[in-house]
Design a protein that fits this description.
This protein has one domain: Alpha-Beta Plaits. Strands 1, 2, 3, 4, 5, 6, 7, 8 and 9 form a 9-stranded mixed beta sheet that branches. The chain contains 5 helices and 9 strands. The protein is α+β, with helices and mostly antiparallel strands. Helices cover 17% and strands 36% of the residues. The longest helix has 12 residues. Helix 1 packs across helix 3.
Length: 237
Amino acid sequence: MSVLALLLAGPLQAWGASARFARRTTEHAPTKSGVIGLLAAAQGRERTADLADLAGLRFGVRVDQPGTRIRDYQTAKHFDTGKSMPVSERFYLADAVFVAAVEGDDTLIDDLHRAVQAPVYLPYLGRRSCPPARRVDIGVHRDQSLEQVLADQEWRAAGWYQRSRKRESTVPLTTFVDATPGDSRNDSVRDLPLSFDPLHRRYALRGVRTDTVDVPNPKARRSAPPDHNPTILLGGD
């Protein structure tokens, strides 16, 4: 088994698990259906293509920088009649950074890795208006579990955000990982994609386990002062 790690960072992101009609909300972190959609698009799959192999991957995400939730609204007119459509709300995460990972068969993970390096359709972070600001691919990991990869990745938050927490030498980061049969505490969300067919999109429930991992803060203030005494140059006793 292998794990493909992805960096999801951009000015805006939107990950809706239950967003419908005129109110399009976003979750606090990337959804499995959103990331599977990104990977399927990178491979060039059509929306009506079979997703069974991608849906079978284990999925997890780490919140490196939670961002700020913002609200926008949109107006539109009907293409044929010219009548005004209902005003719709759009919610986004601004300045958020996440590390996502999928775990599965070596061959499929290698195919996905090649796809994100040279995608057929450009990746976007939940909505087409949300392009990534950094390189999405951060590598394939062999002989490591999904949880290990999320715990071992360096902290990917922006430098200004790391400096804002300079009093902490390590920071706890929240993770959301596909629950396993042995997990007694997990939440269920309708976020397992079965079909992206625009005429009949279908999603099933999946269990999600919430946890935290501690990672070093490279911008942490040093605990001991530097070994430097400028008054020594003045001489004297």
